[in-house]
Amino acid sequence: MTIRRGFGQPDEEPAGGRPRIFRARPSDKLPVRSAVRNAKLAALPVAFAGRQAMGVGKRALGRSADAVHRDIQLRTAQHIFEVLGELKGCATKLGQLLAIYELALPPDLAEPYKIALGQLQDSAPAMLPSTVRAAMAANMGNDWRSQFREFDEHRAAAASIGQVHRAVWHDGRDVAVKVMYPGARESVISDLDQLRRMSGLAAVFVPGADVKAVTEAICDCVMEELDYRAEAAYQRAFAAAYADDPEIRVPDVVAQRGDVVITEWLDGTPVPRIVAGGDQRERDRVGMLMLRFVVDGCARTDLLYGDPHPGNFRVLPDGRLGVVDFGACTAWPPAGFEELALDYCRAIFEGGPLDLAAATRRHGFVQSDRTFDVDALFAAVLPCSEPLRHATFRMTTPWLRTQVRRATKPRLSNVARECTMPAYFTPFARSSLTLIGALTQLETEGRYRDEIVRAVPALAEVFDKLDHDGDRPVDLTAVRQRRAQTDARRPSPG
Questions:
Q1: Contact by Cβ (8 Å): 285, 95
Q2: DSSP symbol at 302
Q3: Side-chain half-sphere CA neighbours of 281 within 13 A
Q4: What is the distance of C-alpha 124 from the center of its chain?
Q5: Alpha-carbon span 422 to 429, nearest angstrom
Q6: Running DSSP on this structure, what letter comes out for residue 69?
Q7: pTM for the complete prediction?
Q8: Which of 6, 51, 171, 174 could join 265 via S-S bond, C-beta 3.0 to 4.6 A?
Q9: What is the pLDDT of residues 453-494, one digit of tens each?
Q10: What's phi and psi for 313, nearest 5 deg?
């Protein structure tokens, strides 16, 4: 058997490669002790506050406010990059999500975080070849090499809790071998315990939410990603459903042993490269294929693909969209989801604030004994419906920033503070928000409404009425006037 090696010699880090913006970490070991990991996470806001205090002194010494502010951002971004990259596990997954959601930040704040977080996955410390060999032996037995004709001991790609190696299976197929980092399971469990302890703070910002239930739903989703047997089963289901599809390709699962999963290798152009330099026609095509895969996949497999960030997609030489990484899948839809979608669409597109309020209570998005500003909720939700209100729509960064700012304004009167999210809805929210972030990165224009109707045919009747009305955008003036009247009636503090 031939062992294909990358740069360097066995048990050595690669000597070559592209330069890094931030310095690499010297070890491939994960800090798994709970106290160490929690201290590193807790240090982030403390360090940021310290930098702000130092910035006051620098301004007093004559440095411009802009220069000091930029320096604080870059140092904070590097700190986030280093801590999340070292912790891996849940923290690295958070970094991947932030690399998408930074699109929602104002441009002057987003750039340093984009630089730092965008490097997270590629810059995570690689397992040394000796560690790879030990992990493969622990999962596939000491004779694991006999299963391969070739095996590259240096990683081809990084994942949140593991890394991928390129190899040739014993039957001649090119394969991707995903190996979980030793200690990753313990690290993730520690992260989740920390999340549970910190989750109570969320009640200060979202007092209407059932924080405990949503936190547990998030923890369940993350724990699912530690189960490579489940991941292999999910991928087999998608591969069978898309076996003959002319637009989507899901690689077959070749084998799964413990914390190792082996799948067919996909050669293609990673979607992040298309985000960076693809022409708009290709960006539109790829974005709509990503949307189609997520929404249509539920109907084909009864599973929701939960992690549609650009790094999990690539364009194959024949033009099809290849999909990898099926660890974050969930049985879908739950009972009553179609009714929920129909109720909300009728309220938004055919009804008014009172209809939306009734649907919000009926489906558990506000606690039964809690009052909330129904006009403010309607005014907040309407702009989010724009992709479905028109026959075609282009996702843009300014549009996403506007929606996120509206939902996260730290005002006591913000209606988002009065609402909650049912625990069962958490996987859908994660998948949807990640997908919207990816479509925004691509600036995808397409027929979003048609794709949603493919997934939920019952919505066709609602959207047909929009077409008969000439596809007119809703007039928000009356809603804003009602909200202004409501604000005027609200007693002032104190």
A1: no
A2: S
A3: 1
A4: 18
A5: 10
A6: H
A7: 0.73
A8: 174
A9: 988 999 998 988 776 554 444 444 544 454 455 455 544 444
A10: -130, 150
